[in-house]
Design brief:
Blueprint (H helix, E strand, L loop, with lengths): L3 E6 L5 H12 L2 E4 H9 L6 H12 L5 H17 L5 E4 L5 H13 L6 E7 L2 H10 L1 E3 L5 E2 L18 E2 L6 H11 L1 H13 L3 E5 L4 H14 L1
Bound molecules: BIS(adenosine)-5'-pentaphosphate.
């Protein structure tokens, strides 16, 4: 199994859901760029430049690359040094410049050949449907799927925390995210990894459990 797994996919494609499952299944550690950025935005000691950069996220745009590198690279280095089994990057790569910068960073760490990229593919319609219904736990970040069993839940089934909507899961921002970060925007990134034979495609339109099987299979054989 590769040490570096990168999940790519439209907003709502299931990157976070599957990353959490792979952590439990294989013992990877999980780096979600979106979660790191959301945590950063809650801090009171930010520089003006950082506050301005985080405004992009609130509006549904990408934050500048420098901020991504600043928060992700030190975290990744720390986890790699801890001799973890490997890292799952969820949403870390949103343009070709980032793909190049991350690959260069992995090569510096001697992990250039240890990269497997999984693109979880869903339609824009499915992205929209899932994001308008998604709730997360305010305490443990559990992602709650929308089913007849979960629709009425108000409390997290894992930790008892209160369920809430993510700030960027509102209609206007969801539409912007799908346009700016959906399948069309991802094509050049996929080409980057395809050329390097590091890319596998996952059908994200299947049920959560079926997608998990597909992801597990690629990781085991990757
Ligand atoms: P981020 O937090 O990464 O958001 P995202 O990319 O929009 O993806 P989501 O977290 O919304 O969806 P997901 O694919 O994880 O799906 P999930 O598992 O939750 O990033 C947020 C923002 O940060 C970005 O907009 C950007 O501004 C900024 N940012 C982050 N990284 C950046 C970078 N590298 N560069 C620049 N800016 C960056 O599932 C969604 C819902 O669907 C859930 O309810 C789930 O239960 C359900 N679900 C999942 N799978 C299935 C299934 N198979 N069937 C049915 N329901 C399913």
């Amino acid at each position: 199994m590769k040490k570096i797994i990168i999940f790519i996919g439209s907003p709502g494609s299931g990157k976070g859901t599957q990353a959490k499952r792979m952590v439990e299944e294989f013992g990877y550690v999980h780096i979600s760029t979106g979660a790191l950025l959301r945590r950063l935005s809650e801090r009171q000691d930010l520089a003006k430049k950082e506050i301005k950069a985080l405004e992009f996220m609130k509006k549904g745009h990408l934050v500048p690359d420098w901020l991504v590198y600043k928060i992700v690279f030190p975290e990744a280095d720390k986890l790699i040094l801890k001799k973890s089994k490997g890292i799952i990057f969820d949403g870390a790569i949103r343009n070709v410049k980032q793909a190049r910068a991350f690959q260069k960073h992995f090569e510096k760490l001697g992990l250039g050949d240890e990269v497997l990229t999984l693109d979880i593919k869903i339609s824009n319609r499915e992205s929209f449907d899932r994001l308008t219904k998604r709730r997360i736990c305010g305490k443990c970040d559990e992602i709650i799927p929308w089913t007849s069993l979960t629709a009425k839940l108000k409390i997290c089934p894992k930790c008892g925390g209160k369920l809430k909507l993510r700030k960027d899961d509102n209609l206007v921002v969801i539409k912007k995210r799908i346009k700016a970060q959906g399948s069309t925007a991802q094509k050049p990134i996929l080409d980057f990894y395809r050329k390097r034979k590091m890319l596998k495609i996952i059908d994200g339109m299947k049920s959560i459990d079926e997608v998990t099987l597909l992801v597990e299979n690629e990781i085991i054989n990757g």
